Amino acid sequence: MTGRPPAAGGSGTTARRRGRPPRTESADTRDRILTAARDDFSEHGYEKTSVRGIAKTAGVDPALVHHYFGTKEQVFEAAITQSFGPALQAPKAIEEGPLDGVGERLARFFFGVWENPATRAPLLAVVRSAVTNETAAAVFRRIIATQVLRRIAVRLELPDAELRAELAAAQLVGTAVLRYVIKVEPLASADPEQIIARVAPVVQGHLTDP
Amino acid sequence: MTGRPPAAGGSGTTARRRGRPPRTESADTRDRILTAARDDFSEHGYEKTSVRGIAKTAGVDPALVHHYFGTKEQVFEAAITQSFGPALQAPKAIEEGPLDGVGERLARFFFGVWENPATRAPLLAVVRSAVTNETAAAVFRRIIATQVLRRIAVRLELPDAELRAELAAAQLVGTAVLRYVIKVEPLASADPEQIIARVAPVVQGHLTDP
């Protein structure tokens, strides 16, 4: 938490360089803006959310939002990274433990995040924004490529590791879309353990089958 | 094509019962409204689309839209059913031919529809609307349940046929979301034949494995 909000009448070259408030207040403000951003993006989607609106929700001046995060796209990336934090731990499920149990570890991890109401809401917001807005999709792509796929590829040590990881992710993401977003039955009400039992071998197959 | 637009000053009990124009003009108007609806839902999403806007795009009176289709939800359902027409042929891929080739037939059919730019655009619109709006999701659920799952279940003759069909669909839908909507690489640029080769056995497994 090293953000520095602008001092009144500051004359710095950019909004990011002006003034410096007390440390704790600064960290608190930054968190408040990020939470407001997440809530606004969740509720209104990427397009209808504005820096001004986020500032209003957070109870701060819009200049502070620009100061801490930059453009709307950058606020979104910060909010996604925070919201998506739990999901970004997915590579750990691959890195830790033997490769032949990776399908079940990943499926268990993935549905654990989605079954938890506290982590499901921000994930839903990310999915909705990425599906409906090209800028949001680009941010999502960048995060997936740099924080997830690369680590998985390193672990698998196969030339087509990234394609494998994406096809495995497709089974998981598709199941989440049908179960949690569209809510088709009987999938929406099925026991998570039953789903994991059916999906884990598919994930395993995509990742490690010859 | 049996729609009947309202006659000026008609005194019928509902908008659906008033007057009757020449046959060909009526069919033509109905199609024009449906095309306008599809374009509007595609471009603006479910929430921002209105019956008034659709009427304007089609160059007709809003009363005509209500007359042919009813509420906005009903216009959406008609537009989805038309847009989704090719995808609704999926059960045929299951019904026609031996069960042990069903995974490849379904995968080939599915990616055939998505790879065709003419059918991809309306599918994208349906996915975007269903993911972001609850009413649109409900319409989508109803179509999937009545027009797709039931037919697949009849063909499979297994007690958990619908769950199997949904998990198979999840692999296909997830792959489409990552490839055509979010456009993650290398999946977005991969040869469709390579994708079909990897996805078909998964679809087959979900549907027919013991």
UniProtKB/TrEMBL annotation, chains A, B:
DNA-binding feature ranges: 50-69
SUPFAM superfamilies cross-referenced by the UniProt entry: Homeodomain-like, Tetracyclin repressor-like, C-terminal domain
Keywords: DNA-binding
Molecular function terms, GO-annotated: DNA-binding transcription factor activity; transcription cis-regulatory region binding
Ranges where the HTH tetR-type domain occurs: 27-87
Superkingdom classification of source: Bacteria
InterPro entries, per database record: Homeodomain-like_sf, HTH-type_TetR-like_transc_reg, HTH_TetR, Tet_transcr_reg_TetR-rel_C_sf, TetR_C_16
One Pfam family here: TetR_N
Region (Disordered): 1-30
The name this protein goes by in its record: TetR family transcriptional regulator
Species in which this protein is naturally found: Streptomyces variegatus
